[in-house]
Amino acid sequence: MGQVVRQDRAISLEVLEVMHQLMENLELEWSNGPQDNRSDIASLGAFCLIAFCGSFRGPEMFLVGLFGLHKYGRTDLKTAGGKDYVIVPLLGRFKNELGEQYHLTPLIAETTSGLKVRLWIKRFLDVCSRNGRTRVAAFVARRGEPSYQWFEREILERF
User: Fold this and answer.
1) In a domain, 7, yes or no
2) Does 3 map to a domain?
């Protein structure tokens, strides 16, 4: 009963440093690792950045549709102020909408602290295209089903 929620609370520098360290580790693996491991690395990098920068909670990450990400994720969206965004579509029912629809979420292409959201989404889409994946859930484990355990284990192994 009752949950303390502070939605407008800033992310601490410690949490941001952990995220940067994770992304640096993934970048090294991407650059120096074997080609056959790139699918997992790209999936993990895109998953972490979309979840972190989009503030997605619970099962929301598994609502990211791969078809929609292919359709909208490469779209360049610039504001009048020159900011560059990438669109992340969630597929489902939101706020009493009728039927399954995309809920388009704009995320900054690169954060002021240097997290490269667009780069990792592009890498993820490229490896999915090479592997023939275009119409399933975006983030799945090796067996092809959504799995927080797989993503959690892969993240924790890098620390």
Assistant:
1) no
2) no
* Spatial distance between the Cα atoms of 59 and 122, rounded to a whole number of angstroms: 22
Q: Would residue 6 count as lying in a domain? A: no
In-domain check, residue 51:
yes
Total domains present in the chain: 1
Predicted TM-score (pTM) of this structure: 0.85
Burial class of 71 by CB neighbour count within 10 A (0 to 12, 13 to 18, 19+): middle
Please give the residue range of the domain that contains residue 75: 13-156
Which of 22, 28, 30, 26 has its CA nearest to residue 127? 30
Q: Is residue 79 classed exposed, middle or buried when 0-12, 13-18 and 19+ CB atoms within 10 A define those classes? A: exposed
Beta bridge partners of 65: 137
Q: Which amino acid, residue 127?
A: V
52-106, pLDDT tens digit by residue? 999 887 788 888 989 989 988 777 777 767 789 999 998 877 666 666 678 888 9
Characterize the bridge pairing of strands 84-92 and 101-108. antiparallel
Dist. CA 71–CA 75, nearest whole Å: 8
Place of tokens 């690792």: 33
Instruction: Provide mean pLDDT across the span 13-20.
Output: 89
Structural contact between residues 84 and 91, judged by C-beta atoms closer than 8 angstroms: no
In this prediction, residue 97 carries a pLDDT of 64
